[in-house]
Amino acid sequence: MKQFKNLPILIKFLSAGIGTTIVIIFILFYIYYKNDQRQTVNAFVEKSRAICLVAESIRDEMEAKWEMGIFTTDMLLEAVAAGKNDKALAMIPVVSSWNAAMRKAEQGGYTFRVPKFNPRNPKNEPDYGQDYKIEGPALEKIKKENLDEYYVIDTRSNSVRYFLPVRLSKVCLNCHGDPALSKTVWGRDDGKDPTGGTLENWKEGEIHGAFEIIQSLNPADAALQSRLLKGSLIVLVGIAAAAAIFFYVARLITRPIIEGVTFSEKMADGDLKQSLDIEQSDEI
User: Sign of dihedral through CA atoms 238, 240, 246, 249?
Assistant: First the structure.
């Protein structure tokens, strides 16, 4: 602090001006950084919502075809009996919807998953292949709070993970409802559906899984860093130019002050010398 006080007044003006400018620019950069991140996440959520709603629409359309009789349990049984399990699965509304969403996942820049409690396919187990928990807690929260949608920022993978809950419909109960339906619907006494899956006695409207869209933030972060770098270079050039202008203006302002002080000091020295000369002459 003492060193700053001892600096020339021009340097003080220059330091204060540049320092204030740098602080303001840093604050503006930080605000821009946080706002850009927030907008990116919102954009990812909007995109995920749109994809999941399309998948849900496909599921609804398939269920409507079941209700219209375009697809029937007899057709599904015939496909299974003929060993055409892929064809049988393609008739299931939720399978058709997630297959459609997965088909364009790579092109769309996202990963599509269907995490589910007690899944028939082990790969759909929540957090399958991960050493940390994201999907399980998300599904529990969705189910507990009866949420219509939910998303979370996965800091480990630096991604946005969006969940749209899948609610059981009447058609779903053919394979997931009361085990007693196995006999009525599928002609089996073992409480299973044609694929061998056990009916879980779930109820219409329940939530046991969700459509999930995973989008990496890495490309967006890289683009943001590039913009910030370019902005920083522009700002540095601007600060250099501003410093030169400020130095020139400050010099114009401080020169009269410095010259005035110097003049006063000279006058004071002159008065002192004159006073000494008078005193010496008096003594003589």
Answer: negative
Closest CA to 76 of 94, 92, 55, 61: 92
Sign, CA dihedral 12-16-18-22, equals positive
Under-50 pLDDT residues of the chain: 263, 272, 276
Angle at 211 between CA 208 and CA 214, to 5 degrees: 130
Cα-based distances in Å from 160 to 127, 206, 222, 266, 281 = 15, 25, 15, 72, 93
Angle between helices 93-103 and 9-68 (to 10 degrees): 140
| Helix, strand and coil in the chain, % to nearest 5 | 65, 10, 25
pLDDT of res. 2: 59
Q: Render pLDDT for 159-182 as a digit per residue (tens, 0 to 9).
A: 999 999 999 998 889 889 999 888
Q: Output the pLDDT for position 262.
A: 53
Asked if residue 40 lies in contact with residue 34, where contact means CB atoms within 8 angstroms, the answer is no
Instruction: Look at residues 95, 54, 88 and name the one whose alpha carbon lies nearest to residue 71.
Output: 88
**Interatomic CA distance for residues 15 and 3, integer angstroms:** 13
Which residue type occupies 138? Answer: A
Q: What is the largest CA-CA distance in the chain?
A: 140
Full-model pTM:
0.79
